[in-house]
Amino acid sequence: MPRYRLEIEYDGTGYAGWQRQDNHHSIQQALETAFLKFCGETVVVRGAGRTDAGVHALGQVGHVDLEKAWPDDTVRDAVNAYLQTAGERVAIISARQVDDGFDARFSALKRHYIYRIICRRTPLVLDVNRALWSSKPLEVAAMHEAAQCLVGRHDFTTFRSTNCQANSPVRNLDRLDVVAGATDGLIEIHASARSFLHNQIRSFAGTLRLVGAGKWSASDVEAALAARDRKACGPVAAPWGLYFRAVEYSDS
Questions:
Q1: Which CATH number fits domain 3-98: 1.10.520.10, 3.40.920.10, 3.30.530.20, 3.30.70.580?
Q2: Per DSSP, what are the bridge partners of residue 115?
Q3: What CATH code would you report for 110-248?
Q4: How far is Cα 23 from Cα 87, in angstroms, rounded to an integer?
Q5: In Å, what is the CA distance from 111 to each residue of 50, 88, 107, 234, 245?
Q6: Helices and strands in the chain, H and E counts
Q7: Three-state DSSP class for 80?
Q8: Angle at 173 between CA 170 and CA 175, to 5 degrees
Q9: Of 22, 52, 99, 229, which one is the catalytic site residue?
Q10: CATH 3.30.70.660-classified regions of the chain
Q11: Model confidence pLDDT, tens digit, residues 37-52
Q12: Residue 52 designated active-site
């Protein structure tokens, strides 16, 4: 069966997340319904990562197996047409046929995320549900310094959801940078690793926000990590500031 690698963009607002769920509309379901209308096949679109409700994607990667080989552009354009007709906020940026050894999840070498915070006195309008709003300024340099305490291989029990299903809380965090964005008041948290725990990046963002507000120091973040206790974590940041930016594979 021909296998297609899909690069996917979506606005997660109003969706139950990536994963197909009973009685709740998901990104995966939207894509699979569009494929059914396109080629008449009931398929499973497998993603590189499961994003939560409200989380967005700039470069989610998925794969799907079809019974018939179609031109790459036909797959992209036809599925997008059905997504648009259905009013979905999901689009396939690219589709290309790949070897059946490719797996969107298990072939991934590294995943990249961005968490966006906008600091300004007035509430967000154009960026509502697309960034976390802070009515007060945050100290970017202090946030970045504290973030470096989390880089490396650690037990991240403090920074994962109590519902996380991962077998181990130990992960290797390759990057956690806090930088000023291109527009005034925008702060971006860039996180990269082979894999993440459930709610890990949102937990980082909520904790680092306390540092930026002057309520925590880098030492407090170190202590929270060392505690290996979920209660030591700062508030978990809202999902709508989080974007699944890209996935790295051996051929990319």
A1: 3.30.70.580
A2: 189, 242
A3: 3.30.70.660
A4: 18
A5: 12, 25, 11, 23, 8
A6: 5, 10
A7: helix
A8: 170
A9: 52
A10: 110-248
A11: 999 999 999 999 999 9
A12: yes
Is 76 a residue whose pLDDT tops 80? yes
Those residues whose C-beta lies under 8 Å from the C-beta of residue 49, and which sit 6 or more positions away, are: 18, 60, 105, 108, 111, 196, 244, 247
The pair of three-digit structure tokens given for residue 20, joined into one six-digit string: 């197909």
- State pLDDT tens for residues 191-221: 999 999 999 999 999 999 999 999 999 999 9
Q: What is the pTM of this model?
A: 0.96
Per the CB < 8 A criterion, the answer to whether 114 and 247 are in contact is: no
3 state DSSP class of 227:
helix
Q: What mean pLDDT do residues 13-38 have?
A: 96
| DSSP tag of 235 | P
